[in-house]
Specification:
Layout: E1 5-9, E2 15-19, H1 23-45, H2 51-81
Antiparallel strand pairs: 1-2
Helix pairs in contact: 1-2
Length: 95
């Protein structure tokens, strides 16, 4: 899966991650449309009214998983582009 985030190089060691679209607004609209579609059987069959919201919460969990994997992808890119730091040699002062 490709992330929806874009890696932008800055000056020195700075890097900026810019979203390509209004991600939160898109997820909110999809959530509300999904709730609306799932609400039709509730009205038709007189089921409990919390069912569409519980089912649509699964979509929010799926989106959370996608964000987590996108952030993992960005962390991997960062680790590839940054050279490993050389730690100074330790001296045993407390003997």
């Amino acid at each position: 899966m490709r992330s929806r985030l874009q890696w932008i190089h800055g000056s020195e060691e700075r890097a900026v991650v810019a979203p390509r679209r209004a991600y939160a607004a898109e997820v909110l609209v999809k959530f509300l449309v999904l709730v609306g579609l799932l609400y039709m059987p509730v009205l038709l069959f007189h089921w409990a009214q919390w069912i569409p919201f519980a089912a649509a919460a699964g979509y929010l969990l799926w989106e959370l998983g996608r964000v987590t994997s996108a952030l993992g992808e960005l962390a991997d890119l960062w680790n590839e582009r940054q050279p490993p730091r050389q730690e100074p040699a330790r001296t045993d002062v407390l003997k």
